[in-house]
Design goal:
Subcellular location (chain B): Cell membrane; Membrane
Organism (chain B): Desulfuromonas soudanensis
Number of helices of chain B: 3
Shape of chain B: elongated
Order of helices and strands of chain B: HHH
Oligomer: heterodimer
Pfam family, one (chain B): Oxidored_q2
Distance between the termini of chain B: 52 Å
Structural class of chain B: mainly alpha
Shape of chain A: elongated
Strand content of chain A: under 5%
CATH class of chain B: Mainly Alpha
Membrane topology (chain B): Multi-pass membrane protein
Number of strands of chain B: 0
Subunit structure (chain B): NDH-1 is composed of 14 different subunits. Subunits NuoA, H, J, K, L, M, N constitute the membrane sector of the complex.
Structural class of chain A: mainly alpha
């Protein structure tokens, strides 16, 4: 098998995206759309065919040297190994299904070429992150997905709100990117190379403090991209984009790039206990924060956005607990069921005729039973129903956190468990509000095109059966993913079977409790006035206000000071003052030039007298 | 030297001050020009006197130059006075203040 074929995996979407960007609107619509789907599907197929290359140490393949300047060597080099291969397969296959869905979703849009070109470009950039064996190339992909995310959130840019959301996402993630950029520069100055394999291999020679600092910088970068505290405010607003974009970028792939980065550099990150603890704390705090926010949201996609944030928080917790396999496992199952939920949410909004307030919905089960069952599959996974994919993956994370018998991780585990209960609660709140009972408002929906329903089916199966990827040994599984990852998997939690059963029992009980509470409260829901706490959660703990008060307003004040205080008052003031002085002096001197001959002659005579007097004086007083 | 140098200097100083007074006191352009001529002649007289004193011909050569220059100056300035008088109907110096700042 020719290893160079690996380059086709990212280049195929790039080529199709470029073709769509250049000629998309000239091509017949069917051709342009098929091209986009082909870009994603072809690369999924290739990943599948080339899968054997990931065995052992994986395959490294170099296309050419991108940058060469002194010690800086940046080859365009791909690393297809046990970590990147499953991720690449997930990205390509999920994006194929989402492309198919988008064909139906964007049926009535005029500007489809831009949409599909950007979507393909996004797949290319994401695959660059996943496959790159060089941190600078990874950074290129990192910025690429950021740009595509920006452009796609603001796809309907004619509404200012959407364009603003795109800008916000771009700027907030850029804050994280600064940290990542600093980390890259630091790594280069330490090792003289940016190759991921080399950095991971040589990381153990670094002093502990340096490793901690670099790992924390990497965490900062990951926080921005993955919408973790405190850089999370952009994700809920990013829901302004079209639903396929939310499903692909803001649920399945881009937001997990931060987790992937930490997993990719885990040999480096894991050298610092402090950094791992920080990652775990950020993850657990975000999980809890986002789950409480999701409880109060009214827009269906914002519920899912907060739940994505919360689930990515779980993945961070897993990385912090030292278990890459648990993080990757949850990353994969989450990609399946969250993409499913988002696309189902798109269908729901379509059925509800563009309405996205869940308080106004209800009774949609009768309208489309198939959609209900698909949504239920996703909801069961998200809520962690026993034997669904989400159950095993989330439990793996809680187990990894529980296995650390330190006070910090005991607290984080407690937060994780409580969040699991909240997750079940808000998931089923959403389900009951949307599907149960009678319609609360007369909604005139559109019928669903088949291409919007059928891509959900494989995702539902993948989500529900996702547990098979990494079935724990407890019930006869073989921890497939954990063993596949091999040396990259991090440490496996060591707990007795009794404890493991106990944790499962607890998880099941929490799931049941969440569902029952949701059922009691929301089965026959009447919209009423919302209390202060609910409004607090609805506004995401007023995070936007806090950011505005802590950063934006002081920044504006400082900028104002430099503009009005320094530039206007000081610099302009001094210059204007000087000019004024000279102008005034000129005005006064002007009166001397009377234009009269006699005055001038008189002045000349007096001048002569003064000169002569001066010489006289010199002669008389030697 | 028959005439003492001190007399020459005193005479030319008197002549110069008379010319200067004429230039400063009169408002008529022609009278001002006459004053200038008198001042120039005072200077010329000093030059000739100094030439005789030091037995050097330089001073007399300079006076020749001075005369040539004076004749040119008179020709031009009188022409300008005539022009101004035709154009503005006056030759009073204070009526011309076009150079006022």
């Amino acid at each position: 098998m020719n290893a160079s074929l690996l380059f086709l995996i990212p280049l195929l979407p790039l080529a199709c995206g470029a073709a769509n960007a250049l000629f998309g609107l000239r091509l017949p619509r069917a051709v342009a759309v098929s091209l986009a789907v082909f870009g994603a599907a072809g690369s999924a197929l290739l990943t599948f065919v080339l899968w054997p290359l990931a065995a052992g140490e994986g395959t490294t393949v170099t296309l050419y040297t991108w940058l060469e300047s002194g010690a800086l060597q940046v080859p365009v080099e791909l690393l297809f190994d046990r970590l990147s291969a499953p991720m690449a397969l997930m990205v390509t296959s999920v994006s194929t299904l989402i492309h198919l869905y988008a064909v139906g979703y964007m049926k009535d849009e005029e500007d489809y070429a831009r949409f599909f070109a950007l979507l393909n470009l996004f797949v290319f950039a994401m695959l660059t992150i996943v496959l790159s064996n060089n941190l600078l190339l990874l950074f290129l992909g990192w910025e690429g997905v950021g740009f595509c995310s920006y452009a796609l959130i603001g796809y309907w840019y004619k509404e200012t709100k959407n364009a603003d959301a795109g800008r916000k996402a771009f700027l907030v993630t850029r804050v994280g990117d600064v940290f990542l950029g600093v980390a890259l520069l630091w790594l280069f100055s330490l090792f003289g190379t940016l190759s991921i394999s080399a950095v991971n291999a040589e990381a153990s020679q670094l002093p502990a403090a340096t490793v901690t600092a670099i790992a924390l910088l990497l965490l900062g970068g990951a926080c921005g991209k993955s919408a973790q505290l405190p850089l999370m405010t952009w994700l809920p607003d990013a829901m302004a984009g079209p639903t396929p974009v939310s499903a692909l970028i803001h649920a399945a792939t881009m937001v997990t790039a931060g987790v992937y980065l930490l997993c990719r550099l885990f040999p480096l990150v894991s050298l610092s206990e402090t950094a791992l603890a920080a990652i775990a704390v950020v993850g657990a705090a975000t999980a809890l924060y986002a789950a409480t926010c999701a409880l109060a949201q009214r827009e269906i996609k914002r519920v899912l956005a907060y739940s994505t944030m919360s689930q990515v928080g779980y993945m961070f917790l897993a990385v912090g607990a030292g278990s890459v396999s648990a993080a990757m496992f949850h990353l994969l199952t989450h990609a399946f069921f969250k993409a499913l939920l988002f696309m189902a949410a798109g269908c729901v909004i379509h059925l509800a005729g563009g309405e996205n307030d869940i308080h106004a919905m209800g009774g949609l089960k009768k309208r489309s039973p198939l959609l209900f069952w698909l949504f239920l599959a996703g909801a069961l996974c998200l809520a962690g129903a026993p034997l669904s994919g989400g159950f095993f993956s989330k439990d793996g994370i809680l187990l990894a956190a529980f296995a650390h018998q330190t006070p910090l991780f005991n607290v984080l585990w407690g937060i994780g468990v409580f969040t699991a209960f909240l997750t079940a609660l808000y998931t089923f709140r959403l389900l009951y509000l949307v599907f149960a009972g009678a319609p609360r408002k007369d909604l005139h929906g559109h019928p669903l095109p088949p291409s919007m329903i059928w891509p959900l089916l494989p995702l539902a199966l993948l989500g529900l059966g996702g547990g098979l990827l990494n079935l724990p040994g407890l019930i006869g599984g073989s921890s497939l993913l954990h063993h596949f990852l091999g040396p990259l998997a991090g440490k496996a939690p060591e707990v007795s079977h009794g404890v493991e059963w106990g944790l499962w029992g607890l998880a099941t009980a929490l799931f049941a409790a969440g569902v029952l509470v949701a059922r009691a409260r929301y089965r026959h829901f009447k919209p009423g006035r919302e209390g202060a706490i609910k409004r607090f959660f609805l506004g995401g703990w007023q995070a936007d206000c806090i950011v505005a008060a802590l950063i934006l307003r002081p920044f504006a004040a400082v900028a104002d000071f430099f503009w009005k205080g320094t530039d206007d008052a000081l610099i302009n003031g001094v210059l204007d003052g000087l000019a004024g002085v000279f102008q005034g002096a000129g005005e006064r001197l002007r009166t001397l030039t009377t234009g009269r001959l006699s005055n001038y002659l008189m002045a000349m005579a007096w001048g002569t007298v003064i000169f002569l007097g001066w010489f006289l004086l010199r002669t008389l007083i030697p | 030297m028959i005439v003492p140098m001190a007399h020459i200097l005193a005479f030319s100083a008197a002549l110069f001050i008379m010319g200067l007074s004429c230039v400063l006191a009169r408002r008529n352009l022609i009278m001002i020009l006459i004053g200038v001529e008198i001042m120039l002649n005072a200077v010329g007289l000093t030059l000739v006197g100094a030439s005789a004193l030091w037995h050097s011909v330089d001073g007399q050569i300079f006076v020749i130059f001075l005369m040539a220059m004076t004749s040119a100056e008179v020709a031009i300035s009188l022409a300008m006075v005539v022009y101004l008088s035709r154009r503005r109907g006056t030759i009073t110096a204070n009526d011309f203040d076009g150079m006022k700042g």
